[in-house]
Amino acid sequence: MYFDVPRRITGHRGSGANHVVQREIENTAASCRLALVHGADSVEIDVQVSGDDKLVVYHHARTPDGLRVAEQPLNQLQALGIETLAELTAALPSHSNGMQVGLNLELKTGYDRNELKLDHRVADALTELLPTLTARHTVLLSSFDPIVLGRYRVLRDTGTATALPFSYVCAHPHRRDRTLPVTVSDGVIEASKLGADSVHLNAGQLGLGPPETDPQFTEPGQNWAPQERIAAAVAAARDAGLALNVWCPEPEDAAILLRAGVDGVCVNWVPETVSRTAELLAGAEPTADAIPVQAATPRTE
């Protein structure tokens, strides 16, 4: 399971990244509420720490004017419309769609394409707020950064922090400047080493959607057909005792992934994904057999 209870559809940064038209601004309470209204089981939001050790909800390492979030005081960030984690979560209902609202808190440490300076204070800053969050919501922690997940695991195992499921997010295929794992097998291995409960993969790592279908990020000798890559990823996660979540698939692909046995999808298009998933999964057991074969074309750039 993706959380400690079954979850299928998670809204990415609320109701979707803000390049998606007709959505609320990402990483805000309004965006999260919209995702729940549209049928999401849970919402994913990006959490990082301010210069004065306050938890804020923002995706990028820098503000639009180029200032590092981790170096700015809270009042300056709030002046830009950035919400605190406490404010955002307090504005959410505790239950929606007949179940407790799920929160996937992605812990950010400055992991942008061109950022080399990372800040790992977020795990420690989160410990005081966790009891309040878990009293109202089902919480999952995730991160691209194995260091911050390792730090949280120590806090959890020593009883310093509330014990929660956590997930390793496999590096996005575009991040060639990073040495973190990007193939499916490497991501599963890293998640297992960290003692994670689940692993998160980008849809492009499974051959779904351009331009991530790059041969240097596929398993050696693996067929390009997405249904084989998805089945192999599900099997690898199961063999490692991990749940598997896939982020940013298109609605049709999200439904296909769930039918193939993926535990959850984190999507920009919540209502479309909910609708398509209901159509495809009606009365069907999870199987990879119905996934259409697609020829993936490697990038030449």
Overall description:
The chain has helices spanning 29-37, 74-79, 85-90, 122-126, 130-136, 146-157, 184-194, 226-239, 251-259, 270-281; strands spanning 9-12, 42-49, 55-57, 83-84, 95-96, 99-100, 102-107, 138-143, 166-169, 198-202, 243-247, 264-267. It is α/β, with parallel strands linked by helices. The protein folds into 2 domains: 1-164, Phosphatidylinositol (PI) phosphodiesterase (TIM Barrel, Alpha-Beta Barrel), CATH 3.20.20.190; 167-301, no CATH class. It has an 8-stranded parallel barrel, surrounded by 7 helices. A hairpin with a 2-residue loop joins strand 5 and strand 6 (99-100). Helix 9 crosses helix 10. The protein is globular and about 50 Å long. The model is unreliable at 211-216 and 286-301 (pLDDT under 50).
Radius of gyration: 18 Å
Number of discrete helical segments: 10
The CATH C-level name of the largest domain is Alpha Beta
Shape: globular
Second-tier CATH architecture of the largest domain: Alpha-Beta Barrel
Tally the structural domains.
2
For the report, how would you describe the main beta sheet?
8 strands, parallel, barrel
Features:
301 residues, alpha/beta, TIM Barrel, 2 domains, eight-stranded parallel barrel, two-stranded antiparallel sheet, 10 helices, 17% strand, disordered C terminus
